[in-house]
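OP here, attaching both records as promised.
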Amino acid sequence: MANVLATNTQSVLPLLSGAVEEGLLRWLRAAELTCDRAALLVAQDHRVVISALMKLAGGSPKLNAELNVEAFLRQVGFVHTCQVNDNTAL
């Protein structure tokens, strides 16, 4: 009888594992968004937060001096304008 229960359990584990993994990934995305919003509340300056996030995403401290928040914001505005004009979304 224990072998039958164990056999059925093995087939259910991948489903449970996938559901748990999906739940954890959903929580991770929500936690990251919450942290970004908290940074905006603390800094009270979106350019400071954007600069910090760009440095974190850049990966190399050697590139920090080359990052330009204003150029990044212009690029974001250009992409947004193209999406609105094309009625498309990325």
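Record two, same layout:
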Amino acid sequence: MNERPMPPFDDELLPPPPAAKELRVSVSWLAKSRLRGDGPRYVKIGRSVRYPKSYIHEYLRARTRSSTSEF
């Protein structure tokens, strides 16, 4: 089984609207990216979706590029 590291327990958990604002994308984009599996990692608590701030920052770091030729 592939274990993923958990966010720190003191990490702020953002619901989709503030997470979208932090990423400067729409709430709809976040929902679609969850379905596609290409957005930031998230946590499900019951039926609620939450985005730990550290996962949002991790997502941004992973997509930072220095050149248009980088993949």
